Amino acid sequence: MGTWNSRGLRGSTLEEMVNWTNDHYLEKGLALIQKIPTPITPVRMDADHKQITLAYFEKRSTVDYIGAVQGIPVCFDAKECVADTFPLHNIHEHQIIFMTQFEHQDGIAFILIYYSERNELYYMRFEEMIRFWNRACDGGRKSIRYEELDPRFFMKPKNGYYIPYLDFINLDLELREEA
User: Fold this and answer.
1) Structural domains in the chain (count)
2) How far apart are CA 131 and CA 127, in angstroms?
3) C-beta separation of 88 from 140 below 8 A
4) 48 annotated as belonging to a binding site for a ligand
5) With contact defined as beta carbons under 8 Å apart, do 148 and 131 qualify?
């Protein structure tokens, strides 16, 4: 298992944007989405600053966020990527298993990927994620190229921090109904 200081602040920008968006959706009565904390055990503390400087993860977490959007169960993970190639090792097998089980219970699972260099977000549908995951498991490419993604699911943060992912849940639902 990794340790706290080996992961740095990776993804903190995206997490702040998602948390702000979730608060906004809650205020408007549109959704209740909560951040799932990752359980850690502190190993070393900085007594002067009262901060954890080294810790280990007690167990694997499932996804970053879980909740409901107007009666629909929703779970998602938020990933940040600098390059135009998203490595699939950023998605873990236990997350795939959880999201698969969540979908089987009629929930909606997805991944938000923030391409920080482009300042673009991508809503990756569960169906699309599984297709890329299976390709890698079958010996194919172990990453996802930007060009492979569905252009309908790209979004830009609004006002620099607001992520309109509810619009993309609606599009996801429409495509599920068509199938």
Assistant:
1) 1
2) 6
3) no
4) no
5) no
CATH number of the domain residue 85 falls in? 3.40.1350.10
pLDDT at 7: 39
Residue 138 is labelled as binding a ligand:
no
Could you tell me which of 143, 145, 165, 144 has the C-alpha nearest to residue 154? 165
Q: List the domain range (segments joined by +) for residue 173.
A: 27-36+45-178
> What pLDDT was estimated at residue 58?
54
Q: The whole model's pTM is what?
A: 0.82
pLDDT tens, position by position, 8-24:
334 468 889 999 999 99
Asked if residue 34 belongs to a known ligand binding site, the reply is: no
Q: Is residue 1 part of a domain?
A: no
Q: Which comes out higher in pLDDT, residue 71 or 156?
A: 71
Q: What are phi and psi of 111, to 5 degrees?
A: -125, 135
| Residue 3 is assigned to a ligand binding site | no
Distances (CA, A) of 88 to 130, 132, 140, 158: 11, 8, 11, 27
